[in-house]
Write a structure and sequence with these properties.
single chain, alpha/beta, three-stranded antiparallel sheet, 8 helices, globular
Length: about 280
């Protein structure tokens, strides 16, 4: 928990704003130059900075359909490294920045984070296999944390999704979310992310509470948090907000500054009743 507090400046209710990076070169929906992609990502980062969001997470969400793990091509990793580096450069160093590379490209994300000077990654498939949109996703904790050690990146936090959205979990139906969280903690995850069934879908508060009661590492909410329901989730260590900050509340739309400001105003009011 000390590492989380050191990075985000608080132990609970940290708000992490998503930057859904435009479709990168080589992806089916790619239409923009890398310079345009960087410009938009930096513009969104500056909106988050002006609204005093606690952290930023970059993700190649527009690269649909996603490649699977080691099939993620080199240009995606290279472009995410460049975009991440520019975002890191354009905002104050005290604001933590993280990265996720879809789908399941956790080693690539660690490499990007190290090269770009980022503070954390979001990892899929850390413990227990599941069937994702892209196919079978196997657990990766052992390989991932050994890779982190090999590249001297142990200062980069790994926040692991459990019972991940956009996935089927029938092969682990006899393992509940609390047990999954315990496994992630045992396998040295730095934090756990709880989500709803899909992007923008609300997370189950009872599941969040069960996970928090089961582990001693930070627990974050990774989907469905909006200004209308944020009061139900601020007891978590952090909330990752994407769709809730977009125009019309849809992830694929542009960032809405007014939504971000309204959200943070409400959060700051609620925080007055919460410890740091």
């Amino acid at each position: 928990m000390n590492a989380f507090h050191r990075i985000f400046g608080r132990s609970r209710s940290s708000v992490i704003g998503m930057i859904h990076v435009c479709a990168l070169p080589g992806s089916p929906r790619s239409t923009r130059s890398i310079e345009d992609i960087i410009h938009e990502a930096c513009s969104e980062a500056q909106i988050y900075n002006s609204a005093k969001v606690d952290g930023i997470l970059l993700e190649n969400m527009h690269d649909i359909p996603y490649m699977h793990t080691d099939d993620v091509d080199h240009e995606i990793t290279a472009c995410m490294a460049r975009v991440s580096s520019e975002v890191r450069r354009c905002i104050p160093p005290n604001i933590p920045v993280g990265v996720q590379i879809l789908a399941g490209a956790n080693r690539q994300a660690l490499a990007v984070a190290m090269a770009a000077g980022l503070q954390f990654i979001r990892a899929e498939g850390f413990v227990y296999a599941h069937v994702a949109d892209e196919g079978l996703m196997n657990a990766c904790a052992g390989q991932l944390l050994r890779y982190r050690k090999q590249i001297n990146a142990e200062h980069i936090q790994v926040f692991a999704d459990i019972k991940k959205k956009h996935s089927a979990h029938s092969i682990t139906s006899d393992v509940d979310i609390a047990a999954t969280a315990k496994a992630a903690e045992f396998f040295l995850s730095d934090g756990i992310i709880v989500t709803g069934a899909s992007t923008g879908a609300v997370a189950d508060v009872q599941e969040l509470n069960a996970v928090q009661s089961s582990v001693r590492i930070p627990v974050l909410v990774g989907s469905g948090v909006t200004a209308d329901n944020v009061e139900h989730y601020l007891h978590a260590n952090g909330v990752i907000v994407g769709s809730g900050f977009k125009k019309g509340g849809h992830w694929a739309n542009t960032l809405d500054k007014d939504r971000v400001v309204h959200f943070m105003d409400k959060v700051n009011t609620l925080r007055e009743k919460l410890p740091l």
